[in-house]
Every structure is written in C-alpha cells, then in structure tokens.
C-alpha cells in the first residue's frame, strides 16, 4: 500500500516519527512536508534527532495568513497527490497543514486517515478548532487518542471508521525518554538543578496576540521566585519584540531558542512545574509526572485536568502566581493516553 503522510509543523514531526517507523515495515510511505515550519530549530532538528526519513517533497509554503497559507498548501499538495496517487493520505493533529492535506485528498477521492482525531476545545476562535472539525468530517479513518475524543465525534454523528488507539506522542515519549536522559545536557548547559525550575512555553494566538496577556504572563513569571526556562516559539518572539517586552524580562526568566525534542523532554521531565498553552506539552507533562499549569481557559486534554495533574488558569497574573505557589496534584495518575502502542495499532488498521 502507498501512504502519503502530510506534515508541516513541529508537533507533527514528533507525531509522525513513530508512525512512519511502523508503516515503513510493510508499506511505501511518501512523506510530504508543507514547509509551514522552516527554521532549523522548528523543523530539521526533529528529522535529525528522531531519525525521520527525509521528506520526499518539501513544498516550501512558509508563513502567511490562514487563507493564503492553507490555500497555497492545498494547491501544492494536490499536485503531489495527483502525481503519486496514494491509497490513503495520513494527516496529523490540527494545523493548517492538516486541513490542507485532508481537503486535497478528499477532493481527489483518496481516503483520509486522521491521527489525533476527535479533539475539541469547543472554542471556534482557535484556528486549530476549525481545522479539527473540518478534518474529522473529511476523514474516513479517525484515530482517536482518548475516550473523550471518541465521544466528541459521536456527539457530531461521526461513528464510522473511528478507532481508539491511544496517543502517538506516548509512543514517541517511550522510545525517546531513555535516549534523552543519555544524550541531552540541557540542564547542565542552562545551569538549573533537577526539581528546582519551571519551564514555560507560549505560542497560542489567544495569548501572543494580546500585549496585556503577555505582560501578565511575564509579570507572573517574574514573581515566581525560581529559575524559569522559556524556550521561545518564533511567533512569540516576534510579538514580544513588537510589544517591547523582550528587554523587560525579570532576571529569573531565561529566554532561549526553541529546543530539540530530546532536550525538551529532559527539561520537562526534571522541572518542578510546567506552564504552557501548548497541547503537546500538556500531555508530555502528564506523561513525565510533572504538574502542569495551563495558560488557557479550556483544553482538549480534559482528562489531565480531571486527573488533578493539570490546572487551567488562563492568562491572569494572580491566578498564575497562585498556581505556581500552590498547585499540587493529589491523585495518582491513571492511564489516559493508552499503552504506547498507538502507532502499531494504526499500522494494523491501515493494513486491514
Ligand atoms: C502552528 C499551528 C498550531 C501549532 C503550532 C506548533 C496553525 C494554524 N497553527 O502555529 O496549531 O500548535 O504551529 O508550533 O496551523 N515562524 C518562524 N519560523 C518558523 C515557523 C514560524 O519564524 O519556522 C513564525 C512566523 O513569523 C510565522 C509565525 O511564526 O508567521 C506563526 O507560524 P505558523 O506556522 O503560521 O503558526 P504557529 O503559531 O507556528
Ligand atoms: N517542543 C520542542 N521544543 C520546544 C518546544 C516544544 O521540542 O522548544 C515539543 C514539545 O515537547 C512537544 C511539541 O514540541 O512535543 C509541542 O509542539 P507545540 O507546543 O509547538 O505545538 P502544539 O502541541 O501546541 O500543537
């Protein structure tokens, strides 16, 4: 079978690594990189570290407004699919690359398989929510990471082709956790002690596009009384510079360039707490048993909140400071993301 996998943004490289490894045991994979993320630290580093095969196509689309970026991808992906005529197109997550891949395939009557299907924040102002809903409704096979995702699809009348397989990010984590401990020197390089620092990531438009919210988040970090390590997404760096906030950072807050995956999971794994608006980082905090403070009012990963390991605080300074000081998970962890064999299950279902 010929499978065309469409990726384009950082979290998709991480998700595709275990799936691609599995699929290539039996099938031919054509890997298409839309070029949505293009900096070395946002793209190539993941291909190198995770040993993802070099993309067969890099469409070089780059940044743009939602319509222009998605539209350019749609045309370019269509060209590739017409040439390759795969048996199935595999898309990941909820970015503009996901939607463009699903739409291009559906219009050519090529079956679409969606990895990380069924996630909902119920917030249509998030660009990702629009991408998720549309992609799920264009998909023939829907690989859900959680039971909530299956229920969300059922509530929208989508029950055919739905499979609960667990989360491929757990597969990636299991495979790389030991390697990260062995190879990463990030704690030593930055000069932080295990258990004695916070890690922050912010890149959601609902935060970055508001100077007030970014100022509140940075103000709260300044009050944290501990070292804070902040690998800055390029989108966020651009906005912080525009707001004049880059030069107003408190001394305890260390801004660094985006990290590779191995450094990132080692850094998360030894942190006291994580503060983030990322989807992937919320999950990884849970997988690594580190309390997570989510800088949003909602999450797709509701199980982490219900389990008591994640708290939603939005971007209010006082709520963040209070969570940094007092949030402490009481309960033992449950198995939320499956057993780490999602890629194997996806491979088996596709083969069938
Ligand atoms: C995208 C996804 C988001 C995902 C995130 C992962 C959409 C709508 N959003 O958000 O769901 O959580 O990726 O990180 O698909 N930029 C660079 N270098 C790069 C990439 C981006 O400088 O390699 C800058 C550009 O100024 C660009 C901005 O970041 O305009 C935003 O990039 P874009 O890919 O449009 O969205 P993200 O915010 O990265
Ligand atoms: N990540 C990384 N380096 C960083 C920040 C994040 O490797 O500097 C990883 C993180 O560990 C997770 C994924 O990128 O695996 C999450 O991607 P991101 O936060 O960009 O997007 P989201 O998950 O919110 O879509």
Can you describe what's shown?
The chain is an alpha/beta fold. It folds into two domains: 2-167 and 338-351, Rossmann fold; 176-326, 3-Layer(aba) Sandwich (Rossmann fold), CATH 3.40.50. Helix content is 46%, strand content 15%. It has 16 helices and 13 strands. The protein has helices at 10-23, 44-49, 66-84, 96-107, 127-138, 147-155, 168-183, 186-190, 205-208, 211-222, 234-242, 261-269, 279-287, 302-306, 317-326, 342-351; strands at 2-7, 28-33, 57-58, 88-92, 112-115, 141-144, 162-164, 197-201, 227-231, 253-256, 273-276, 292-294, 310-312. The strands form two sheets. Strands 3-2-1-4-5-6-7 form a seven-stranded parallel β-sheet, with helices on both faces. Helix 14 links the parallel strand 12 (292-294) and strand 13. The longest helix is centred in the N-terminal third of the chain and has 19 residues, at 66-84. The radius of gyration is 19 Å and the shape is globular. It starts with a strand and ends with a helix. 50% of the residues are buried. The mean pLDDT is 98.
Ordered list of secondary-structure elements with their pairings:
Layout: E1 2-7, H1 10-23, E2 28-33, H2 44-49, E3 57-58, H3 66-84, E4 88-92, H4 96-107, E5 112-115, H5 127-138, E6 141-144, H6 147-155, E7 162-164, H7 168-183, H8 186-190, E8 197-201, H9 205-208, H10 211-222, E9 227-231, H11 234-242, E10 253-256, H12 261-269, E11 273-276, H13 279-287, E12 292-294, H14 302-306, E13 310-312, H15 317-326, H16 342-351
Parallel strand pairs: 1-2, 1-4, 2-3, 4-5, 5-6, 6-7, 8-9, 8-11, 9-10, 11-12, 12-13
Helix pairs in contact: 1-7, 1-16, 3-4, 4-5, 7-12, 10-15
This protein binds uridine-diphosphate-N-acetylglucosamine and uridine-5'-diphosphate (UDP).
């Amino acid at each position: 079978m010929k499978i065309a996998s469409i990726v384009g943004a950082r979290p998709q490289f991480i998700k595709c690594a275990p799936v691609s490894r599995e699929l290539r045991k039996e099938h031919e994979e054509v890997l298409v990189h839309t070029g949505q993320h293009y900096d070395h630290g946002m793209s190539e580093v993941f291909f190198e570290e995770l040993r993802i095969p070099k993309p067969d196509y890099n469409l070089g689309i780059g940044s743009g407004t939602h319509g222009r970026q998605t539209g350019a991808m749609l045309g370019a992906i269509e060209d590739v699919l017409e040439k390759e005529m795969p048996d199935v197109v595999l898309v990941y997550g909820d970015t503009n690359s996901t939607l463009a891949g699903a739409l291009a395939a559906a219009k050519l009557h090529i079956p679409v398989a969606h990895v990380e299907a069924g996630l909902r924040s119920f917030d249509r102002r998030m660009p990702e929510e629009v991408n998720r809903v549309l992609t799920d409704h264009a998909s023939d096979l829907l690989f859900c990471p959680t039971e909530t995702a299956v229920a969300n699809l059922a509530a929208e009348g989508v029950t055919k082709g739905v499979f609960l397989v667990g989360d491929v990010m757990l597969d990636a984590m299991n495979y790389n956790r030991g390697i990260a401990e062995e190879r990463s020197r990030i704690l030593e390089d930055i000069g932080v002690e295990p258990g004695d620092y916070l890690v922050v990531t912010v890149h959601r438009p609902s935060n970055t596009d508001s100077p007030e919210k970014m100022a509140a988040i940075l103000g709260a970090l300044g009050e944290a009384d501990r070292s804070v390590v902040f690998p800055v997404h390029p989108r966020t760096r651009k906005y912080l510079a525009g707001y004049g906030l880059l030069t107003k950072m408190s001394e305890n807050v260390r801004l660094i360039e985006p990290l590779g995956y191995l450094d990132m999971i080692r850094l998360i794994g030894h942190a006291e707490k994580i503060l983030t608006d990322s989807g992937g980082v919320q999950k990884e905090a849970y997988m690594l048993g580190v309390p997570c403070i989510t800088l949003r009012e909602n999450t797709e990963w509701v199980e982490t909140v219900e389990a008591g390991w994640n708290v939603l605080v939005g971007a209010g300074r006082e709520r963040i400071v209070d969570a940094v000081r007092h949030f402490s998970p009481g309960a033992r962890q449950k198995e939320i993301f499956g057993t780490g064999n999602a890629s194997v299950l996806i491979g088996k279902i596709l083969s069938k």
